[in-house]
Amino acid sequence: MVKKVDKSEEEWKAELSPDQYQILRQKGTERPFTGQYWDNHEAGTYRCAGCGTELFSSDTKYDSGSGWPSFYAPTDPDHVKTEADSSHGMRRTEVLCGACNAHLGHLFPDGPRPTGMRYCINSASLTFVKGGGHGGHASESTTGRD
Ligand code: FE
Fold it and tell me: What are the structural domains, with CATH classification, of the chain?
């Protein structure tokens, strides 16, 4: 089980940049092709920008053409969760951090093999840690602030 992170909105507001707060805690979406990672091809691990939990690996990242970082699977299914999202007049599946409940993006059934799924994730929700191999849980601060 992933260790749960529970902070007040005031704590999140103090820790995150305004953009990150808007996306992670208020379910915002960055504009496509504007984020830090949609075109990142380096090997490494993508962690939650809010709590540092390992979410995705460059091994499952692919170019979806959407302008957002896209992955066909999470590193550990226990580290992300999904919920039905009917906002903005659409029926979508929201992807959240399994540890801190941060909004990450949405899940669509148009991804590549082997899963056929596309985890369409905001760059602002992620902190990229360069390097091969899967680390454990982040103990250092990886809030992704500039
Ligand atoms: Fe998190």
Answer: 9-130 (2.170.150.20)
Q: Cα–Cα distance between 12 and 2 in angstroms, integer?
A: 19
Residue-wise pLDDT tens digits, 83-97: 999 999 999 999 999
HSE-CB of 90 using CA atoms within 13 angstroms = 7
Decide if 48 is catalytic: no
pLDDT of res. 16: 97
Please tell me the distance between residue 126's alpha carbon and the centre of ligand 1 in angstroms: 9
Q: Which residue has the tokens 């940049």?
A: 17
Output the CA–CA distances (angstroms, integers) from residue 9 to 14, 100, 113, in the order listed.
9, 12, 38
Q: How far is the CA of 97 from the centre of ligand 1 (A)?
A: 5
